[in-house]
Design goal:
It is a single chain. By secondary structure, the chain is mostly beta strands. The protein has two domains: about 35-195, no CATH class; about 200-295, no CATH class. About 5% of the residues lie in helices and about 30% in strands. It contains three helices and 20 strands. The protein has helices spanning about 40-45, 100, 195-200; strands at about 35, 75-80, 105-110, 115-120, 125, 130-135, 140-145, 150-155, 160-165, 175-180, 190-195, 215, 225, 235-240, 250-255, 260-265, 280-285, 285-290, 290-295, 295. The strands form six sheets. Strands 2, 7, 8, 9, 10 and 11 form a six-stranded antiparallel beta sheet that branches. A five-stranded antiparallel beta sheet has the order 1-6-5-4-3. The chain has a three-stranded antiparallel beta sheet with strand order 15-16-17, with no helix packed on it. The longest helix has 5 residues, at about 40-45. The relative contact order is 0.15. The model is unreliable at about 1-30, about 35-40 and about 50-65 (pLDDT under 50).
Amino acid sequence: MWLLLGLASFTIACKQDLAQTPVPAKTVEKPPAPVAIATEADVIHCSWKHSSSQTTSQLKNEVYNSRPALPNWGIGFLVENPSQAFVSNTPVHNPGYEWLNRLCLPLHQSAQSPPWAVLTGKWVVDLSGSSAQFLEFEPNMVQTSYETYAFIILQETPEGWFQIQYAHPEGDRDGTAWVRKDHFQQQYPLVVQYWRDLFQPVDNAQTSNRGYLYKREQLSTSIPLKSTPSASSPTLFTLQSDLSGQDYGIEPLEIQGNWMRARISIPHDFCGTEETFKFYEDWIRWWSEDVGPILYYPPRGC
């Protein structure tokens, strides 16, 4: 038996800003009271029945999360796609946070295990006890295109399971869960986008707007340029950690596994600038097990 709570929309505001701007404290909302468990079908569709005294409200475009995303950005991200068109190497554009109100995503402790909770709005509805508990969580999201925020995917299985980092760790919960591709058919479908697809080379024949990738400032790391895709090969040039995004640009030319042949321009060869450049071209390690991609593209463009 699973849970029956009545149809409701729950408040959330999940904005994760790469600039890490200060955010006013959010108003604390009292969670709905625990409810009895009913059927699994009701859980999967968030078909709740609840008492009229429980407070529910719609998500507004306001800031909810003030903490930066955790350092590990994994292999890609999960986001709602409101458009029928989908191109794997083009970021989904879904501004605002209302898509989290429409979300009804069962969470699993491991691949193949029964769901222990459902993520909907600002709540994780915990089903592990004799009654359902509404737990507020602090989302762990990354900005993937203009005003669009997504859940990080840490790993996947061939059977269509994805481990997501949906929240910051709190107490005995690490903020991760497994989700099934079978559950991605929501009101608007959820889609998986991979960093390796988004960083694939574009038109190498163009002469401007090329160096559109930056290193992730959160990592505060320098990037060595290697003569071959190997850590043991000679270092030809090092992109220093103290450079800002205006000082350089990184253009992907070729990807081989965790390595990228890249063209580094100093200053950045992006947005039609007329400045004189220095160019360095060879191999960088763009992805690692610990942090995922060390690069990103500016979601707000020029």
